Amino acid sequence: MAKVNANYGKLAAGYLFPEIGRRTKAFLDANPGVTVMKLGIGNTTEALTPTILAGLRQGVEKLADNSTYTGYGDEQGDSRLRQAIAETYAKQGAQIEAGEVFVSDGAKPDAANLQSIFSQDATIAVQDPAYPVYVDSNVIAGRTGASKDGTYDGLVYMKCDESNGFFPHPPEVKVDLIYLCSPNNPTGAVATKEQLKEFVDYARKNKAIIIFDAAYAEYISDESLPRTIYEIDGAKECAIEINSFSKTAGFTGVRLGWTTVPKALVAEDAEAGKINSLWNRRQCTMFNGASNIVQEGGLAALSPQGSTESAKLIEYYMGNARVIVDGLKAKGLTVYGGINAPYVWLKTPNGMKSWDFFDKLLKECHVVGTPGSGFGPAGEGYFRLSAFGHRENIEKAIESIKANLVL
Ligand code: PGU
Hints:
15 strands, globular
């Protein structure tokens, strides 16, 4: 008799974003005629840029002729795109080879799948709060016990709060895998080089591996802040980096990302090269490569003109972030993030619970955000607003908060 994976039963709640959608729909059903302003999910809204569109069209055109048609491509990605990604690292002073870059259909699947190449008894450390995929994928894989009061037995939570500027120190105990995200979702905090060095030193000392999610790297405007963990000496021995075209080039629906697995990476039982070949084996076995059309779009996005156009898009979303930060501050709320990251992390007024504030904001202001507690126990009492949206919509949302939120 078939049995299901019982680990799914350990998951504390449904996935956060569908739950927000469910509550929003219930509110709209009960209040016909009301329109809500959605600052919940970090989902891009602005049209693709001309250079990217030309790249995608070229990808389609190539399929129209037998002489340029391609079927299955390399599982690791188009070699031109791998090379172009490697060159973007060089601009940050990091030396990455094309053979260390694995193109994928996005950072979320990679973040979820990476755990599968590590041992079942690996101890996992996560930032608290964190993008839910890091925890949930390890719960599903069976690396945790049951959930109690929002935490899972067996996981090490690295608390991120006001006292540490929302970026933790390495754990006191020995762990094997460490998930870090900078610029951070949900807090908007960005790690400094010194903070990342502390983790790199810890990982090398303990033969631990850092899984570094840099999906929002291009939102960093402060030149002194690192955009890749490979800006830190020694990181190639201990860090895998995940990245995405979603928030940089508007590919949330188009789908394209990559994971960098340096050949120098080592683990307790893996010499240099081994983990790179394991990830290669995993991708060849379970993934058939990213779309050839989309990879043409990705190449166009990384061209000089494509990068200039994407930078404007990022500037637009960061303009939204400024509207949110300024508006909430004017209302007297305590806010973090939104400077080098597209997320604003606000402290709920009067110590309200995150989900209670979600309901209040929806009811009083018709604004949808994301409850901080959905990202981990230390997110309780906080709330995330996303800067992804049309400017008019963001402005309307903030005006409504200013006018209607009862403090
Ligand atoms: N990594 C981080 C840190 C993210 O915040 C997101 C999206 C991704 C990866 C996804 O990258 P893809 O390349 O598009 O797969 N976070 C959004 C969307 C919600 C979700 O479930 O992915 C958010 O609102 O947090």
